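Researcher: I'd like a structural prediction for the single chain below. Treat it as a standalone chain; there are no partners to consider.
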Amino acid sequence: MLKLLILFSFLSPLVFGQVIFAPKDSAPKALVVFLHGCKMDGAQFARTTEIQEFIENKKIVAIFPSQNDLYNSDHCWNWFLPMNQSRFISFEHFSILDQVTKSQAKYKLGSENTYLVGLSSGAAYAMNLVSCFPEKFKGVAIHSGLSYLAATDGLYANQALIDGPQFQANFTANEAFLCGGKNHHQLKTILIHGKEDTRVYPVNFNSTKEHFIELYDLIDDGQPNHSFPTVSFESYSHSTKSYPYTEFNFENSLHEVVLKTIFVDHLEHKWSGGKEGETYADPKGPKITKLILDYFLTEPSMRHQE
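Model: Treating it as a single chain, here is the predicted structure.
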């Protein structure tokens, strides 16, 4: 216990900054944690997502932790470090999870209504958290990210952006299953990627989808026996106001959509439908902030209606 207290005392000054939004006139129903990408901070990511438009009507608390210069000069989350791919309480794990715990206590919310959203390196780091700490979240959104264990060192990390993960999906899923242990459950999961992404190539979108299919197959009965999904279906959304996109939905045995994928035409490595003028936003994409929140907060998450 003394060693643990000493460790937390050492870590506390290194907890990184955050931006937080909460409804003014009503009790919040959910907590949504947003992890930014490289060369961003929490404040810029908040502007990019235009989250303030949704705080009151969705009744959510939204927190945006910021990476610290001490750990990455480009403000990237170090998703590829082995200590960040485990249940070991690393500096970055602690910085995020401490803010989550404090926000849950302040707003009287629990893990059953806490969700995680990431963009780029933030999405890759979100994969680490939901793989090894699945009990802390009900859902996750991965925008322009990579699979769990896509790389396990800095040398391969840049290669993974182009060529995809270091390991096959059946291996990464099994490792995630072991890391999270008995805490695993089928999170409400949504994956978003642009077809024209030349920073994190779309091969990573496909590998992340395969990772979750393999993982949820393990979670439902403990066996890699193709028991998930029970149903999958495709739709194509086209609008004159935004880029078209292809959506796949995967249902579990309860006929709930627990895995949703959105592949956006023409979108590069930017937040889809984000605020005009922000560096990492493309306002011509579908309004992905709304789509994510609608998916997270609709119970039960049943089949998409055209």
